[in-house]
Prohibitin (Neotoma lepida), 61 residues
Amino acid sequence: MPNKPLLNLQNINITLHILFRLVASQLPCIYTSISEDYDERMLPSITTEILTSVVACFDAG
């Protein structure tokens, strides 16, 4: 998420690394409902929303 503009027109650079492990018993459900590329389809939108809300809690002052 490089150079994400904030509401006050400041730009920040953020690198986010995500470590995750799926629950093995849920894999069949995930693969059939989302497909095997779940990480490429789901994680970007989820992480963008969460990261934006966390960054919004802090100000640059």
